[in-house]
Amino acid sequence: MFVILVYDVGEKRVGKVLKICRKYLTWVQNSVLEGEITEAAYKRLKIELKRVIEENEDSVIFYILRTTKYSERETMGVKKGGEEIFL
Amino acid sequence: MFVILVYDVGEKRVGKVLKICRKYLTWVQNSVLEGEITEAAYKRLKIELKRVIEENEDSVIFYILRTTKYSERETMGVKKGGEEIFL
């Protein structure tokens, strides 16, 4: 499955959150990562994040795409990161 | 179609970009909006954004989902915005 992860976390935790996310997904833009990931790896990612974020302050959103067949990505302006393989 | 928009733009342009995006999509998190949008409205959104952003400095990514049938959204921590109708 393909996951788009966006996070909005406290300044003190950004470094830790980004470090964890980068183990599983590709950084594409400030607070945005994406990539193919297995169910098992996705579970591990969530467990690791849960240990770091402040549940009542931070926000992490996962968009889970079972298939990328019906989706595409368009970029305006500079391409900051990411891989071309998405779509 | 359903669009997830993420932006990473210069401080001076954030207000303008957010104002434009909010005309078309729902704010869900810092620099992230989402929502159902027609092709015509999507074109207008891009034209308006092109007038405001600095092409060689700012980055806007659109994830376009033709259908949300194969996708879902999961939130960890606080829910900052958005509507429940997504998936």
TrEMBL record, chains A, B:
One Pfam family in the UniProt entry: CRISPR_Cas2
Classification via Gene3D superfamilies: 3.30.70.240
Entry-linked InterPro entries: CRISPR_associated_Cas2 (IPR021127), Virulence_VapD/CRISPR_Cas2 (IPR019199)
Class in the EC hierarchy, top level: hydrolase
Signal peptide interval: none
Annotated keywords: Antiviral defense, Endonuclease, Hydrolase, Magnesium, Metal-binding, Nuclease
Cofactor: Mg(2+)
Entries under SUPFAM superfamilies matching the protein: TTP0101/SSO1404-like
Residues that hold Mg(2+) according to the record: 8
GO biological process, any: maintenance of CRISPR repeat elements
Recorded family membership: Belongs to the CRISPR-associated endoribonuclease Cas2 protein family.
Function: CRISPR (clustered regularly interspaced short palindromic repeat), is an adaptive immune system that provides protection against mobile genetic elements (viruses, transposable elements and conjugative plasmids). CRISPR clusters contain sequences complementary to antecedent mobile elements and target invading nucleic acids. CRISPR clusters are transcribed and processed into CRISPR RNA (crRNA). Functions as a ssRNA-specific endoribonuclease. Involved in the integration of spacer DNA into the CRISPR cassette.
Subunit structure, as described in the record: Homodimer, forms a heterotetramer with a Cas1 homodimer.
Protein name per Swiss-Prot or TrEMBL: CRISPR-associated endoribonuclease Cas2
Organism of this sequence: Fervidicola ferrireducens
Gene from which this protein is expressed: cas2_2
